[in-house]
Amino acid sequence: MAMFIGSNLHSDNWGEDYLIKKLMVYFDDSFVIYRNRPIFGSQFDVCLLVPETGIIIFEVKSWKPDTIKEVKNGDSILIKTKDTETGEEGESAENPTAQARGYVYKMRSKIRQKTGKTPLVYEMVAFPNLSKDDFDRLGIETVCEFESTLLREDFDSKKAFYEKMRLGIKNHKGALSHCADFNPELMYRVRQIFETDLNIEDTTIENTDLVKDTESPIEQADYSLFAYIPHCDMNDDKRKKLAEAYSVGTKLYVITEDQRDLAIIAEAINDVIIEKGLIADGLNLKINFEGQNKEKKTFAATTFQVFNCVAYSVSPLDMGEASFEIKDGKNISEKQLGVMKQIDKVCNFNLEQYKIEHADSSKNIIVKAGAGTGKTFTMISRISYICHIQNCSMKEMAKRIVMITFTDDAANQMEDKIRQHFNNYYLLTGDGDCLAFINQIEGMQISTIFKLCIEKKKMSKDL
Fold it and tell me: Is 401 left (phi over 0), alpha (psi -120 to 50) or beta?
């Protein structure tokens, strides 16, 4: 959930309230929202800080179609007005793009004055009460470009919203080469302009009240699904089932015996990612602002891997076992285990890692493995599994986990990788509980054994 910084989350301006609500729902807590902040004597409607990209100034107009009389001279919109005190009717000519652009110039100047740098700052106009048909019929595009205008349909889903945001960023992509990178340091310095009590540790907010009451849409989802699909046994029902499971956060392990089936699975998972307005970035996910990977890809490989999904195409095993599924690593029969052992031998599926990940949470496990064998990945998968099956909030789980490393660098890397894993999960599922976990990572007990002992010794003295 994006962070709204301010006291007036709800106001008498329905359009601004509606836009802010959608921004909070559609983006995670690395995004920051302001409203009505002063910049050189003016106040913008809504502002969004987009990490690694820039700043968007929104001019919000709650006009209904019958409020608009006409587009005048191609550079202003003539609207009907009514005096609230006298009831006298009139008209007013407005140009929302020009209004927003004025705030953009002032925002750039303010940031340059305070930081010496100028990030990408650009405008968008929001008409939450106007449909695309209204926009076309009234000829508003001569005043407000379609690519930079949020219309009623754009608010309907995260995918539609991301698509319009992507178009807006694309419109200003050329300016990026002349702007300072909006990296975490510059974003923090910009936040200092608008937040008087911001501390360095507040670069990721600790106010989990924003998400603690959020209901998870994946509460009933399985943690993982191992699917063995031999002998060209793939069909549309299986494809849909796997795609649906992935879309709600179920981790997929899929084994096929035909490369064409693997291509079907890869396409189905990629479609889910695109449908959610995301893009695969290696084994991570990110918001698809740039509109990449929209085209269908030809898939020719024996392995497909993306966040929370790995699928293999192996030579026919001929073990006489039909298709089967294993949920959450439980109730594995001897025949199924035999198939999994054989799969472990012929591809990169690692049965030992799978067993560690899904082991009973009440058991102690000792893992001995050399460098580069996937210990960190397995440990994070194990944490994810335990968080899923434990009957307590993920925020509480963060307090229970202790991780010990041998170096400070390893501890920092572990924090980063855990944060990235749960951020991926949030992007994929929208599960607000993940944000509560992410917000607690800085306070988790992840350190070297030396630091942990020092901390425990200090605590015992305090007692």
Answer: beta
The pLDDT of residue 291 is: 60
First-residue to last-residue Cα distance in the chain: 38
Bridge pairing between strands 76-82 and 89-94: antiparallel
**Identity of the residue numbered 372:** G
SS3 content of the chain, % helix, strand, coil (to 5): 45, 20, 35
Cβ contacts of 315 within 8 Å, gap of 6 or more: 257, 346
pLDDT (tens digit per residue) in 289-327 = 766 555 555 555 789 999 999 999 998 887 777 889 999
**What would the DSSP string read from start to end of 423-452?**
HHHHHHH--THHHHHHHHGGGSEEEEHHHH
Report pLDDT digits (tens) over 334-343.
Answer: 999 999 999 9
pLDDT tens figures, 428-462? 887 766 766 777 776 677 888 888 788 766 666 65
β-partners of residue 78 are 70, 93
What is the residue-averaged pLDDT of the chain? 84
Closest CA to 291 of 417, 184, 154, 159: 159
Does position 205 have pLDDT exceeding 50, yes or no? no
Amino acid letter, 424:
N
pLDDT band (50, 70, 90) for residue 177:
low
Asked if 429 and 249 count as a contact pair (C-beta separation under 8 A), the reply is: yes
- CA–CA distance from 269 to each of 154, 265, 273, 297, 306 (Å)? 24, 6, 6, 12, 9
Q: Cα–Cα distance between 251 and 307 in angstroms, integer?
A: 8
List the domain boundaries for the chain: 3-68+97-205, 224-451
Q: From CA 138, how far away is CA 106, in angstroms rounded? A: 30
Specify which residues 150 forms β-bridges with. Answer: 126
With a pLDDT cut of 70, the percent of the chain lying above it is: 87
Joined together, the tokens standing for residue 47 give 């502002």
Specify whether the backbone of 308 is left (phi greater than 0), alpha (psi in -120 to 50) or beta: left
Rounded Cα distance, 301 and 245, in Å: 23
